[in-house]
Amino acid sequence: MAKSTTLCPCPPTLRKQTLTLPCTLHTCKQPRKSAPHSAAIRAAQDNSGSPPRLIDIIRIMPETSKDYFKKPSRRVLFGGISLLGGFYIAQTVSLSFGALGVNDVISAVLCVLMTEYATRFYYTRQKVSFPAALLNIFKLGFTYGLFLDAFKLAS
C-alpha cells in the first residue's frame, strides 16, 4: 500500500500515525495511517499516564468503599442519611397513594413485602456487612415514617 494521504479527507491526527491501513472513515478508499499495534496492547495492559478506564474504576470500587467506610464518623453519617432517606420515602409513598385514594391496598402490600424482605435479608446473614446494615436502617426509617403518618392521620 502506498502512503498517500493527500487525497484522503481524514483528520490530520490520523495521518500523523505510523502504519497505513485502508481508510474506512470515508468513501475515498485512500490509505490512512493508524496507531501501531504495540501501543494498543500496551494500553490494554498498562494505562499509566492516561486517564483510568471504566472497568478499572469498577474493579477498585469495593476496595475503595471499604477503605472509605472505615471511619466511624462516615458510617454514622451514611446511617443517618439512610434513616432519613427511608423516612422521606415513607412520607412520599403515604402522601402520593393516600391523597389519590387509588391502589392503597397494593401500595400497602408492596411496603410490607419490602420491609419483610429487608428484615429477612438482614437477619439471615452470618456476618452483617455495612450495606446490609444500611438497608436495615433504611427499613427502620421507612417504618418510622409510616407509623408517624398513621399517627398524624388518627389525630
TrEMBL record:
Top-level division of the source organism's lineage: Eukaryota
Keyword Amino-acid biosynthesis part of the UniProt annotation: no
Any Pfam family hit: DUF565
Keywords (A to Z) from UniProt: Membrane, Transmembrane, Transmembrane helix
Coiled coil region boundaries: none
Xref: InterPro entries: Uncharacterised_Ycf20
Transmembrane segments: 76-99, 105-123, 130-148
UniProt similarity note: Belongs to the ycf20 family.
Protein name: Uncharacterized protein LOC105166517
The encoding gene: LOC105166517
